[in-house]
Write a structure and sequence with these properties.
Layout (H helix, E strand, L loop, with lengths): L36 H13 L3 E6 L5 H14 L5 E6 L2 H13 L4 E2 L16 E5 H6 L1 H9 L3 E5 L9 H11 L4 E6 L4 E2 L9 E3 L5 E3 L3 E3 L1 H6 L6 E13 L5 E6 L5 H11 L5 H18 L6 E6 L2 H15 L4 E3 L6 H10 L4 E5 L11 E7 L5 H8 L12 E6 L2 H19 L4 H27 L5 E5 L2 E7 L2 E3 L3 E2 L3 H7 L7 H22 L2 H4 L7 H26 L3 H12 L9 H15 L2
Parallel strand pairs: 1-6, 1-10, 2-4, 2-5, 3-4, 5-6, 11-17, 13-15, 13-16, 14-15, 16-17
Antiparallel strand pairs: 7-9, 8-9, 11-12, 11-18, 11-19, 19-20, 19-21
Helix pairs in contact: 1-2, 3-11, 5-6, 8-14, 9-10, 13-14, 15-16, 16-18, 18-20
Length: about 600
């Protein structure tokens, strides 16, 4: 971008060399203060360009906060700035930023209010405020900024366009800042209200898409092991509702319906009084129970559309689990404390309205239910970002979504980004065109959904049902039609919570194969099929598949138990009998496989 300070061009200087001498986490590799490769790369790029404005897009869970605060520490240490102002979307995030800044050696006041005028305490290096707070008194915040050379960090900067007045206030408040660092979790569009200090690329439909100075997407973060892979558990079902004209309508999620019918069916599915959401919540709780066998503190989050739905979902989860549920409503006092309590505890479920899902940062979240009617790429990315933060290798996130074309497209785009990394980089133009087209289509769908939401009184939900439709992982769909609580559904809900990506895919494939055999058996295909001897080639392939599956399960059990692979194989031979794997028959291999499955699923 423009307005560079040429005097701060420091080519070849590492981020570590520029840290303040007193920085507490400066040192050795592997400590909490060690920068990730992308963070060092972004800081190096910033220092070389030394821009006044810089927009960094990094996938949720990748470490935007650490990047921003380390850069802030460097700019303070070389006297580029002396004051730090962080603008956050929510009150809860003010405290999170202040806590993280303290660990970086920067003292920020999260309790500063507009009533405090220009004083926030001489012992602080700056303040944390919200966008709403700035919009109320922009001139005061401009004067505060002009009191010293200031770095303004705008977290989730797209909130600057939530209202036209907010954008104007941010320009007024921070137009004279020495440096401005904007952060976001995903590229965003601007059709009417451009975000201050952000550049845009015009699109063919007349809209604009933000231009980032540094981008670190989900695909790169997944390849680097920074975020978890996501399994999407897709649920369909039949919906019934009544229109304003008194006409009863019926449609199934996932069918080729019009946008209006799809939106109304989707809203019906999310109705707390219907069976669809009730059954999905029960299925998600079963999945959470399975995950907690290996990750005892794993938690779940339901993202609801509004307060009424959130309260109803929380009540249902209390009925299902017999445990209290953390209910987070954006305009209630104490929400921040409840989020912190849930984050530090081991309870099962939290329910939040969509407005605060972006501010919920709980690393132990492993299971999610997407129970909101929003389908914008920005919100979907932020919502899924609640579940992808990785704490240790092998954790997998499971997110339950309705079979709605807009959501399925967004889920596919997330997988496509993973595949871009695996298949090799595409040109910036190709990726940009694909991103812009996807965002435009999804936001048009969300606009239709929002219009229906505003006119909700014009129709009434009458009933709904749910069934497991498929699991989506690594761009591949697994499973088929399966009733809730059936063997087929439980197959896909019941795999372990700690798996390498290749193990997830292998287990999904195994469960799909088992499901296909059961389905064929129910239809009488297997019972009435003529018996015939298996050809040597078929036996050879079967042996190969069983050996591969056994090897994968041994690897999983080895990580859980801490026993070496060799000892696991020896124990299997002792208990099940038979020769070494290379000489074992299909039946002997299957006995060992079933024993390991039982041990992995007590």
């Amino acid at each position: 971008m423009t307005d560079s300070d040429p005097g701060l061009h420091l080519p070849g200087t590492s981020a570590a060399e520029l840290l303040p001498p007193a920085y507490p986490e400066r040192a050795a590799h592997g400590t909490a203060g060690t920068l990730r490769a992308w963070q060092e790369e972004a800081i190096r790029q910033y220092l070389e360009a030394s821009p006044r404005d810089f927009l960094a897009s990094a996938t949720p869970g990748a470490g935007k906060t650490t990047f921003a605060l380390r850069l802030a520490a460097i700019l303070r240490s070389n006297h580029t700035v002396s004051q730090i102002v962080v603008v956050a979307p929510t009150e809860h995030l003010k405290n999170q930023w202040a806590d993280a800044a303290a660990r970086a050696g920067i003292r920020l006041n999260p309790d500063y209010s507009n009533a405090d005028g220009l004083g926030y305490g001489l012992h602080y290096h700056g303040v944390v405020v919200t966008y709403a707070q700035v919009a109320m008194k922009p001139i005061q915040h401009r004067l505060l900024t002009e009191n010293a050379d200031t770095l303004v960090i705008m977290d989730e900067v797209h909130h600057g366009g939530d209202a036209l007045s907010w954008g104007d206030a941010i320009r007024e408040a921070y137009g004279s800042a020495r440096r401005r660092l904007s952060l976001t979790g995903t590229p965003f569009r601007s059709d009417e209200a451009p975000i201050p200090f952000v550049q845009y690329a015009p699109q063919g439909d007349g809209s604009r898409v933000s231009l980032t100075d540094y981008d670190y997407g989900y695909g790169r973060a997944l390849a680097d092991g920074i975020v978890r892979p996501v399994i999407f558990m897709v649920y369909a079902g039949k919906m019934r509702w009544q229109t304003s004209a008194g006409e009863e309508m019926e449609a199934s999620l996932g069918e080729g319906n019009t946008k209006d019918v799809t939106s109304q069916a989707w809203r019906t599915a999310l109705d707390p009084a219907g069976d669809w959401i009730s059954k999905v919540l029960r299925a998600a709780d079963k999945r959470l129970s399975e995950v907690r066998l290996q990750i005892p503190d794993a938690g779940g989050l339901v993202i609801a559309t509004d307060h009424a739905a959130a309260k109803a979902y929380a009540f249902q989860l209390r009925e299902i689990t017999g445990e209290n549920v953390a209910l987070i409503l954006s305009d209630e006092d104490g929400s921040s404390a409840r989020i912190d309590e849930f984050s530090q505890g081991t309870s099962r479920w939290m329910v939040a309205v969509r407005m605060v899902s972006e501010g919920v940062d709980v690393p132990r979240l492993a299971v999610g239910v997407y129970a909101t009617s929003s389908a914008t790429p920005l919100f979907f990315a932020q919502a899924i970002g609640r579940f992808v933060r990785s704490r240790r290798r092998g954790e997998v996130a499971s997110v339950f979504i309705p079979n709605v074309p807009g959501l399925m497209q967004l889920a596919a785009e997330l997988e496509k980004e993973r595949n871009h990394v695996l298949e090799g980089p595409k040109s910036a133009e190709e990726m940009w065109d694909a991103e812009a087209a996807m965002m435009a289509e999804a936001e048009r769908g969300d606009q239709a959904s929002s219009e229906l939401l505003e006119q909700e009184f014009k129709y009434q939900a009458l009933g709904s049902d749910a069934h497991f439709d498929r699991a989506v992982f690594d761009g591949v769909e697994f499973g088929g039609y399966a009733e809730v609580d059936s063997e087929e559904e439980l197959d896909f809900l019941g795999f372990p919570g700690l798996l390498e990506p290749q193990e997830v895919k292998a287990l999904l494939q195994a469960r799909q194969s088992r499901q296909a055999k059961r389905s064929a058996s129910k239809q009488g295909i297997l019972e009435h099929a003529p018996e015939k001897a298996e050809a040597p080639e078929a036996l050879h392939r079967t042996l190969g598949e069983q050996r591969k599956l056994l090897s994968q399960l041994v690897g999983m059990y080895s990580r859980v138990s801490g026993e070496p692979h060799k000892d696991v194989h020896t124990e299997l031979r002792r208990v099940c009998g038979g020769p070494a794997v290379a000489q074992a028959s299909v039946t002997q291999l299957q006995k060992r496989i079933e024993l390991l499955r039982r041990r992995l699923r007590p």
